[in-house]
Structure formats: C-alpha cells, structure tokens
Amino acid sequence: MGFVSQISEVIPQLIDAGRQVVERGLVLASGGNLSARLTDDAFVVTASGTWLDRLTVADFSIVNAAGEVIGGADRPSVEWKLHHHTYAVRPDVAAVVHLHPQHALLVDMLGERIRCTTLDHAFYLGRVARVPFRPAGSEEIATLAADAVADGTNAVVLAHHGCSALGDTVSMALRRAMNLEEAATMTYRLLLAGDKDTDFPQEYRDRIISI
Q1: Do 177 and 24 contact (CB within 8 A), yes or no?
Q2: Percent of the chain scored above 90 by pLDDT?
Q3: Residue 150: exposure state from Cβ atoms within 10 A (0-12, 13-18, ≥19)
Q4: Measured distance CA(107)–CA(93) in Å, rounded
Q5: How far is residue 178's CA from residue 184's CA, in Å, rounded to a whole number?
Q6: pLDDT in tens, 116-164
C-alpha cells in the first residue's frame, strides 16, 4: 500500500481524533499533536502551530525514519521527535496521541501515580509510565518517553507537560488517551476522599483478557 492510499485513510481519522480531544477538554488551542505510522520508514504528524479541532489535510507533515520532512507541511510539530523515537522502539505502534490533560498532570504534580482502578482502565492501559520534565521538542524528552514505553507500556505522563497514548490504530491510541484521563480523574477524586490505596484487584490483572 503506497503513501497516497494510506494518507487518505489515516488523516481523516486524525482529524476526527483532534476534534474529539478538544471537545473533551483534553487539550487547548494549538497544544498537543497527533501522528500515525505510514510505513516502517515514515509517519504523518500534525504540523507546527495547528489547532487540533481545526485540522485539514494541509495541516500534516510526513517525516521519514531519518527525521527528514519528505511531504506535506514544511514544519512538523516541535514534538515530532517524541513520535519519531516512539515508533523506533515500538514497531507494533501505528498511532501516537500526545495531549495535555489536566487531571493526568494534576495527579502527577501531587506526587501520586495514576491508578487504573476500573476494568476499562486496567484493560486499555494496564499501567501508566512517567518521565521527569525536559524541554518540549528536545532529544531528551523524546528519548525518555520512548524508553518508558519500550517494554510495551501504552501510556506515559510527561511531567509538567502532557501525556502520550499509543495504539495499533488511531482509534485505539485515542481510546487509551481518554481512559488515561478518566483514570487520572478517578484517582484525583479518590485522593480528595482521603483514599490512597484503592486499586484494581491484583488477582484479576492477569486474567483481564479472558473476562
């Protein structure tokens, strides 16, 4: 399957994902960025300065494995390295949704881990990784985030910045991003109630797939 046919499939999905995450308050204005793998050697990513709820076909850049822009908009998101490094370590990942959700960041800033307390959270996320703050667009943050998900983890919080959710489709990456913020919201409410222990039953974690 060539670039043209793949782009015609994934860009509408990314445009729809962008609209949904803004509507749900997971990102504001031109924050956040979305990408999808085209081939083993290239991916499409939202361009610099784009608003996720106003995306058009012209708002995407095509970047190759060497980090070169080979099509589309001239200036990819400043976070293109974050996507580039993630695809390099996770050949099973076909899409990355990078957002700035409030509760995920809030829980992290409180020094707490995001708990996957419900069946959906445990199924779609399993666990949530976390990396310390590094400047946006830097090689450091891209490397830290990629290392955090190299073991198969599909969600990572970037301290004082945002989060990335991964999937084998755009839909799955989006679903994980939504579940991550819901898990963070649930965690925050438990903390407000004074609960620091409640979590999904450990004895069922390895049996979730068969439920």
Answers
A1: no
A2: 91
A3: middle
A4: 26
A5: 10
A6: 999 999 999 999 999 999 999 999 999 999 999 999 999 999 999 999 9
What is the rounded distance in angstroms from the CA atom of residue 80 to the CA atom of residue 53?
19
Residue recorded with tokens 């989006």: 174
Encoding tokens for residue 200?
């999904």
Q: How many domains does the chain have?
A: 1
Global pTM value? 0.95
Give residue for tokens 């438990």: 190
d(CA 127, CA 104): 13
CATH of the domain at 30: 3.40.225.10
Residues spanned by the domain of 155: 3-210
* 149/44 Cα distance (integer angstroms): 20
The counts of H helices and E strands in the chain are: 7, 8
Cβ atoms of 86 and 166 within 8 Å: the answer is: yes
Q: For residues 199 and 116, is the Cβ–Cβ distance under 8 A? A: yes
Q: What is the pLDDT of residues 6-17, one digit of tens each?
A: 889 999 999 999
